[in-house]
């Protein structure tokens, strides 16, 4: 027997699927890398679903809302886990300014000063001598953060603080401070930077200047242009709809 087609508007966060309602919720773009489609982790889901196992909209509505509440709590947990704690980026910038270039053993040993993040294993392998007091304090701080925040975020902090990488957010703010733009123009640039950072997170790319090559910049711009064109088309369609109304 073919699936029954349900007419009329479904309850919020639901759609008719087969012979039942199912809940449907969009995954925030910056969190999609947590929901891979395949094992290679190159493609990611845009929506999460749950079969509500009912064809009654009165039963589907509260079940869908319960699913949405559960998923949104999960989204918030994932966002907190991914987010750099407040003040950590500013702290990394202060370390970066306080460590003189000649006192940074990563540079003194002839390693690139930036562009190649160092891992915890590589840092251990360097077996640094205890003669760079400010740098030693930074290493101790990174180990302290590793216990609190995990290896990935601690090493991201260390690479920013030691000058190995450059934060997109901090670099953009430094650039804006050097320009005489109006408040509206600054806000527009900050929205673009925020979009870029969110795109980096959703694409599993570090939100760092060194990670943005020409190919990735083109991908980001193409996505942004497509999104803006869709938004313009939607606004135009809404205006036409309003104008057609008596």
Overall form:
globular
Distance between the termini: 44 Å
Strand content: 5-15%
Strands in their spatial order, largest beta sheet = 1-2-3
Stretches with pLDDT under 50, minimum 5 residues: none
Mean of pLDDT: 79
Number of beta strands: 3
Separate helix tally: 9
What structural class do helix, strand and pairing data support? mainly alpha
- What's the assembly state of these chains? single chain
Order of helices and strands: EEEHHHHHHHHH
Helix content: 55-70%
Largest sheet: 3 strands, antiparallel
Record the SSE blueprint.
Layout: E1 14-17, E2 20-26, E3 47-51, H1 57-82, H2 88-98, H3 105-108, H4 120-126, H5 133-149, H6 151-161, H7 168-177, H8 183-202, H9 214-244
Antiparallel strand pairs: 1-2, 2-3
Task: Write a structural description.
This protein is 56% helix and 7% strand. The protein has 9 helices and 3 strands. Strands 1-2-3 form a 3-stranded antiparallel β-sheet, covered by helices on one side. With 246 residues, it is mainly α.
Highlighted features:
single chain, 246 residues, mainly alpha, three-stranded antiparallel beta sheet, 9 helices, 3 strands, 7% strand, globular
Entry summary:
This protein has 246 residues and is mainly alpha-helical. The chain is 56% helix and 7% strand.
